[in-house]
Amino acid sequence: MTASHAGACRCGLISAEIAGEPLLRLYCHCRDCRKQTGAPMMAFVVFRDSDVTWFGAPKTFRSGGVERSFCEHCGSQIGYRDDELPGEVYLTLGFMDEPERYPPSFHAFEKRRLPFLHIADELPRHDGFSTQR
């Protein structure tokens, strides 16, 4: 497979090549993403799970219908899968080798955005989930 996209954790133990094009690119302001990352928000790029070839096996944590993945060696956040969105994998922009290729195109969970976090953009802002579940 010739990858048009690639990503890896900080230490390189977990990596991926992705053949397909992104389905979505987004900022998420939900509490779960903040708790998982320790950051005031998270940014993701979404691909079809079937387009991703993994090298190494991420560790996972399951809670509330979501399975989050990370590198057990360096602790890098890799992404998540949602039971309500089968066949999709949400990869963190930090996992991607060229994160600048995936500028977010909207905000999810805007109602939960921390009041001190100001992002001056004209992107659409969804109060909750941005996709049908």
Explain what you see:
The radius of gyration is 14 Å and the shape is globular. The model has no long low-confidence stretch (mean pLDDT 93). The protein is built from one helix and ten strands. The strands form two sheets. A seven-stranded mixed sheet has the order 6-7-8-9-4-3-10. It has one helix at 31-37; strands at residues 5-8, 15-18, 24-28, 42-48, 52-55, 59-63, 66-70, 77-82, 88-92, 107-108. With 133 residues, it is mainly beta. Strand 6 and strand 7 (66-70) form a beta hairpin. It starts with a strand and ends in a 25-residue tail after the last strand.
Report a brief summary of the structure.
The protein is mostly beta strands. Helices cover 5% and strands 35% of the residues. The protein has one helix and ten strands.
Q: Poorly predicted ranges (pLDDT <50, ≥5 residues)?
A: none
- Over the alpha carbons, how many angstroms does the gyration radius reach? 14 Å
According to DSSP, the number of beta strands is: 10
The helix/strand series, from N terminus to C terminus, equals EEEHEEEEEEE
Question: How is this fold's topology laid out?
Answer:
Elements: E1 5-8, E2 15-18, E3 24-28, H1 31-37, E4 42-48, E5 52-55, E6 59-63, E7 66-70, E8 77-82, E9 88-92, E10 107-108
Parallel strand pairs: 3-10
Antiparallel strand pairs: 1-2, 2-5, 3-4, 4-9, 6-7, 7-8, 8-9
Offer a few descriptive terms.
133 residues; mainly beta; seven-stranded mixed beta sheet; three-stranded antiparallel beta sheet; 1 helix; 10 strands; 5% helix; 35% strand; globular
